[in-house]
Amino acid sequence: MTTTSPILELRVALTTKGYEKLVNFYCEGLGIKPQQLWTGGEDRALILEMGQATLEIFDEAHAEVIDQLEVGERVSGAIRFALRIDDLDAALERLLARGAKLVHAPVVTPWGHRNARVSDPDGLHHVVSSVVIPLRER
Fold it and tell me: How many domains does the chain have?
């Protein structure tokens, strides 16, 4: 596979006081298996492979539009994750059982995704989505 981007990988590093809660949220809630574990005497870290990465940059007005579509009001901060998964309902059930808070129930977006908004145990917003109308059918 060739790429047209000079960036080969996007990595996001989260620092948390609630390490176990976030590991549980991502590994058990989303079903992600650790790719690498880094541990020292009193420190812990892991790397999770999360598929293809993109960086979305919104101005405030566009963030308002997205929040209105997905939640009905402006709620997200400067950073939120958007995670596309196969089974939104099953993922939501697992995430909520592992400390996520439901910000808004699933909605179908104009771009053919079914999106739900949750916050992780540290309060970071996540859009969890699945495709309901494939691009070729829109």
Answer: 1
